[in-house]
């Protein structure tokens, strides 16, 4: 999958699961993602995705996760987490990701 953020392109390797397949069926798409906690951007979908939540333990910059069946999250910092997520994928080289996403809302385009 390709992501375009602030005119920078990133490549992500996706998990093979029902949630990822449902998300990819929406491609190409552009989302205005909200900032949360100084470490992630998220978008809330009206419809739910099939979840297979697991204890992640450690979040890594570039992780793409599903939270609570409705939220697609892109993490741009490493940190420990006690929350449960469904893994969607990971950005291959997240260098510069935090800067590209910025401090407020971020517009992210997704395509196959």
Automatic annotation (TrEMBL):
<protein>
    <recommendedName>
        <fullName>Cyclophilin-like domain-containing protein</fullName>
    </recommendedName>
</protein>
<feature type="domain" description="Cyclophilin-like">
    <location>
        <begin position="3"/>
        <end position="110"/>
    </location>
</feature>
<dbReference type="Pfam" id="PF18050">
    <property type="entry name" value="Cyclophil_like2"/>
</dbReference>
<dbReference type="InterPro" id="IPR029000">
    <property type="entry name" value="Cyclophilin-like_dom_sf"/>
</dbReference>
<dbReference type="InterPro" id="IPR041183">
    <property type="entry name" value="Cyclophilin-like"/>
</dbReference>
